[in-house]
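Researcher: Please predict.
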Amino acid sequence: MHDGKNGVPTQDATARYRQEQQTVIDEVTELLKLYDRINLGKDIPVADEPPR
């Protein structure tokens, strides 16, 4: 992926774009866990934790 106009690359944006997307995914995941804890009374395990 490149930043640019009309398909003309001005700078490689792949690493930056992927980091931004990972940050969004991480933040949304935390918000969903918070929602579940507050509204559903559930404690959702983190991905690397085994289910209880």
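Model: The mean pLDDT is 76.
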